[in-house]
Amino acid sequence: MHVSMAMQMDEASTNLHIFHNKVPHVLTVAGSDSGSGAGIQADLKACAAHRVYCSTVITAVTAQNTVGVQGVNIMPEDFVAEQLRSVLSDMHVDVVKTGMLPSLNILKVLCQNLREFPVKALVVDPVMVSTSGHVLVGPSILDGFREELLPMADIITPNIKEASALLNYVPLKSVSDMRTAAKLIHELGPRNVLVKGGDLPDSLDCIDVFFDGEEFYELCSLRVNTRNTHGTGCTLASSIAAELAKGSSMLSAVKVAKRYVETALDYSKDLLIGNGAQGPFDHFLALKNIAQNSYRQDRFNPNDLLLYAVTDSSMNRKWGHSIAEAVRAAVEGGATIVQLREKDAETRDFVNAAKVCLEICRSFGVPLLINDRIDVALACDADGVHVGQSDMPTRLARSLLGPEKIIGVSCKTPEQAEQAWIDGADYIGCGGVYPTNTKANNRTIGLDGLREICQASKLPVVAIGGIGLSNAGVVMEKALPLVVGHAINFAFKGRSSLGSYALVLHQLMKQ
């Protein structure tokens, strides 16, 4: 390995160590909900579910339940200022998320403190009108939003009623109206706008409109039939803030947050708390699998792709290996992620073998993905799937697997890479880079094709196909400056020496 490449790897390793020791931190400035479905309580739970630290500044204390809001007690502005200064001066906040700002003076205090203690991002949830229709602030604060807070915001997340209020109560009745509203609100100063369409009349899906000042994105999710929708707005905004604190791009943070809320709503649709028309939902759906998933601290870490092993049934048969033996050799040799590619086995046999492989991988803390077979991944609770262009669409796979699972997509063109990102994939498998005898009639793209996709991709890229010890260094040198993520990524096909390949490549990376 060239000295310059080794220095890049050492620098990346040092930066990762620092990054992993820095806990992402969100500060929520909002009201307290005694029913614990929305407000500060929802923000705390949402950030915790995204594994992000959350501190709080309470602007008001409310008496509310599943029936409605019975009372609001606004905090003195000087005490709100004291809370803000206490946290911002000491705790290295990454992102501030705002909720209920019940008075113009409290809004001004917040803006003053943000100017004194700048943060990486400001997420504004303009809590004016709840989903249930309760008006939570007076009209006098609207000018404060428009003139002071919105120009400081990195994203604002109004529902239809709130977007209408910001625009002097213009009616919003269609997705086209939402697009117009997003553009007009953007002109008030925020860098990004997300107009939420959950309350859009006569809509079978939940369509949110995201506008970044240049492009519109219509983000669609299934409408969940449930009464348990209290706190969805707070949760979405806090989830966006949490993902931004972890370093995600804005659109990626919005997409992850939207998937999380959709999944949590579906998981909690039959939850029965309270007697009113709008109940809370369960933010901690992932805890149902905590025993199985406790070895994984993060949903997805691009560094898991560093040494990517792909098993092959024909090669295993040739060398007399079971799929479990191939997987154990790979992880013992240093593989950081494993994909099970099994085209010949019966479904029952594949599921049973996958369960054995999953136990092996989890004992090493290595993620296990299933190639193509969503049904097998669900049956064995694998960490995710890898799909091709002719397999199940990524968006449908995401809806079946939920937000916590890893999804990779095979891509040969920049257009396919862009679509994978839009549809919610976590990484791209790019290849074959070289010809390989483990996948017949697979069109190769060469190093130039790999470089082109790396340049275009917004996702981490795994170079797949015909990569071994003799050419790994060439692939690294060609793609290292461009791969999205923190390290060059490999895939190598299952062979008799699969574990040895992993070990040799792992040693090569350290040279």
UniProtKB/TrEMBL annotation:
InterPro entries, alphabetized: Aldolase_TIM, HMP/HMP-P_kinase_dom, PM/HMP-P_kinase-1, Ribokinase-like, ThiamineP_synth_sf, ThiamineP_synth_TenI, TMP_synthase
Domain called Thiamine phosphate synthase/TenI: residue spans: 307-478
Pyridoxamine kinase/Phosphomethylpyrimidine kinase domain ranges (all copies): 33-276
Protein's UniProt keywords contain Nucleus: no
UniProt entry keywords in alphabetical sequence: ATP-binding, Chloroplast, Kinase, Magnesium, Metal-binding, Multifunctional enzyme, Nucleotide-binding, Plastid, Thiamine biosynthesis, Transferase, Transit peptide
GO molecular function, one term: ATP binding
Cofactor: Mg(2+)
Reaction it catalyzes: 2-(2-carboxy-4-methylthiazol-5-yl)ethyl phosphate + 4-amino-2-methyl-5-(diphosphooxymethyl)pyrimidine + 2 H(+) = thiamine phosphate + CO2 + diphosphate; 4-methyl-5-(2-phosphooxyethyl)-thiazole + 4-amino-2-methyl-5-(diphosphooxymethyl)pyrimidine + H(+) = thiamine phosphate + diphosphate; 4-amino-5-hydroxymethyl-2-methylpyrimidine + ATP = 4-amino-2-methyl-5-(phosphooxymethyl)pyrimidine + ADP + H(+); 2-[(2R,5Z)-2-carboxy-4-methylthiazol-5(2H)-ylidene]ethyl phosphate + 4-amino-2-methyl-5-(diphosphooxymethyl)pyrimidine + 2 H(+) = thiamine phosphate + CO2 + diphosphate
Signal peptide: none
Pathway the protein takes part in: Cofactor biosynthesis; thiamine diphosphate biosynthesis; thiamine phosphate from 4-amino-2-methyl-5-diphosphomethylpyrimidine and 4-methyl-5-(2-phosphoethyl)-thiazole: step 1/1; Cofactor biosynthesis; thiamine diphosphate biosynthesis; 4-amino-2-methyl-5-diphosphomethylpyrimidine from 5-amino-1-(5-phospho-D-ribosyl)imidazole: step 2/3
Subcellular location: Plastid, Chloroplast
A GO term from the CC aspect: chloroplast
Gene Ontology annotations of biological process type: thiamine biosynthetic process
Function: Essential for thiamine biosynthesis. Bifunctional enzyme that catalyzes the phosphorylation of hydroxymethylpyrimidine phosphate (HMP-P) to HMP-PP and condenses 4-methyl-5-(beta-hydroxyethyl)thiazole monophosphate (THZ-P) and 2-methyl-4-amino-5-hydroxymethyl pyrimidine pyrophosphate (HMP-PP) to form thiamine monophosphate (TMP).
Similarity annotation: Belongs to the thiamine-phosphate synthase family.
Protein's name according to its UniProt entry: Thiamine-phosphate pyrophosphorylase
Species whose genome carries this gene: Lupinus luteus (European yellow lupine)
